[in-house]
Amino acid sequence: AQSVSQHNHHVILSEAASLELGCNYSYGGTVNLFWYVQYPGQHLQLLLKYFSGDPLVKGIKGFEAEFIKSKFSFNLRKPSVQWSDTAEYFCAVKVDSNYQLIWGAGTKLIIKP
Amino acid sequence: DSGVTQTPKHLITATGQRVTLRCSPRSGDLSVYWYQQSLDQGLQFLIQYYNGEERAKGNILERFSAQQFPDLHSELNLSSLELGDSALYFCASSAEADTQYFGPGTRLTVL
Q1: pLDDT tens-digit map of A71-93
Q2: Interface-testing mutation among A90, A100, A108, with chain B (most B C-beta atoms within 10 A)
Q3: What 3-state class would DSSP assign to A16?
């Protein structure tokens, strides 16, 4: 069965540190890839998405993600995090045989001021 | 603001009761998705409707049901409620096949 794995359930960083959150999926066909963010007490918001083209995707708030097909990965990065990036981050994948997204378990990111 | 609205924002009820959660999708979106988010289970996909028809089903209990009306709003009905049903219930909508936009959620507390 298709699945999405986010390796780190909790990440704690200091402000200005660099961030990389891992996302791997298990499916060999065509995929559309998403990162969503959920700030404390809020709903999920789209950070960025990849459908096709340049595998390096830039999103809102300085985030970017790189699709590496050979590694089945779509890692999220930010060069310098801020306290306001404290949130839960979800990776999601749509495979061409499904109508709904397959969601990772989420990574809770805490930024220490 | 995603354009997706959900009512009510909070709901407190007792075990054994039935509640209805409502979702209005973004203008023009034909797909509506329902999710449950709890501390122990994380984000769980429940069900998807597309233009009034059920399109995909996830981990939805038999006590739960949903429908999408001709005006495209959707309702999620939860019956015979149990303590474990306490959670945040999100609705999302999409126009394209993939990008989902989430509503603010309904926080359900079952006492």
Answers
A1: 999 999 999 999 999 999 999 99
A2: A100
A3: coil
